[in-house]
Amino acid sequence: MFEFLQSISDFFTTGIYTFFEEAADYFIVSLLIWYLKAKLLALEYAWDIASQVLDAFQISAKISAAFGLLPASAMNIVNFFRFPEAVNLIVSAAATRWVIKVIPGL
């Protein structure tokens, strides 16, 4: 009987702190995982919106048409350094950045 009372006393003197510490750790980790999943979902949503905006304005086609107007010698250099791909990437990043700014809390 004394051991039972001693274990209850130990729980209230040292065990309760450990219990609340572990519960707080679990709560904070769960909250952080939920927050990161929500951010990832919002970023996927922002990318979908940005890609739809780029498709609506046909920016990739306009960039390709503009590079197509270059002379053949200049076009070889441009294609060697992959400038059309770089410009498309920069435009996509700018559109995504704009969408991220528009969505509050992201």
Give the SSE map.
Elements: H1 2-57, H2 59-68, H3 72-80, H4 83-102
Question: Gist?
Answer:
With 106 residues, this protein is mainly α. The protein is 90% helix and 0% strand. It has helices at 2-57, 59-68, 72-80, 83-102.
What does this structure look like?
The protein is mainly alpha-helical and 106 residues long. The chain has one domain. Helices cover 90% and strands 0% of the residues. The chain has four helices and no strands. The longest helix is centred in the N-terminal third of the chain and has 56 residues. The chain is rod-shaped. The model has no long low-confidence stretch (mean pLDDT 87).
Features:
single chain, 106 residues, mainly alpha, 90% helix, rod-shaped
Question: Total domains, how many?
Answer: 1
What portion of residues belong to β-strands? under 5%
Shape: rod-shaped
* Rounded Rg: 28 Å
Helix content: over 70%
SSE ordering? HHHH
How many helical stretches? Answer: 4
Ends apart, CA distance between termini:
58 Å
